[in-house]
Amino acid sequence: MPGKQTLLVVDDDPNLARMLNDYFQVQGYNVITADWGEDAVKVCWDTPPHLALLDIHLPDIDGYEVARRLHAHRRTKDIPLIFLTQKSERLDRLQGLALGAVDYITKPFDLSELELRVRNTLQRTLQKTLAHPVTGLPTGRWVDETLSDLLQASGWAVLLASLRGLDQFRERYGFVAADDVLRAVGLILKDLLGQSHSRGEVDFVGHLTAEDFFIVTSVEHVADLRDRIDARLARSMEYFYPLKDRLAASPMRDPLSINLGVVTATESTAQDVDALKVAILRSRSH
Question: Given this model, what pLDDT does residue 1 score?
């Protein structure tokens, strides 16, 4: 897992808190401890941890209230919470999960199992942060790592598919409809990825920006892929509009369209990831 992850341990039992602190530090985590619920909320607001291990029985507010307060604010609502508690009743467990806890572990517990659950939760959270929230396709550091690998490779081609006209579409039909367009384009590209993987045509599909998709492939496959993507996406664009607008006599202003571009290893002079991104985005037709 890249970087050092920070865990918040919230428990009023000093012996247990010390044990968890020592154990997770040996495992390579930064650990912050708090023994009061109010302190836990303040720590999360000041410096949000990557995950919180949260006891339910605390001297002031209980763990459920801590969870409510954290999930009520944008800055802290996405912190994964694992409840540590002596309670084992089904209703208590359901209450914790209903408040957004990702796991619920009853004391006493096995430290190795707890660490495994923490690690798995952090891995799932990391994958979510590296994926576009609408399409689920890779973005951010995941994309940077893929492009970085290309800088040292040969024989590759990057096919850019830029969605044009989405801002105007969003103004006219709303955010939900615009997200549906993005999601549909992403699904089409995912479908292409599934069809092409067995033939070795497509190595990666992701986002450079929200509206700029790209596919990593090989020089020998890029022309055929471009033709297939062009044909499939071009005929899909009009169906995102209501029927009455598709049948209107006057043409729509700035309609949805797909612009394609290609960059190959032999053409690229990029020395770093940012320069390669610029080259890919400039490849789109105007």
Answer: 41
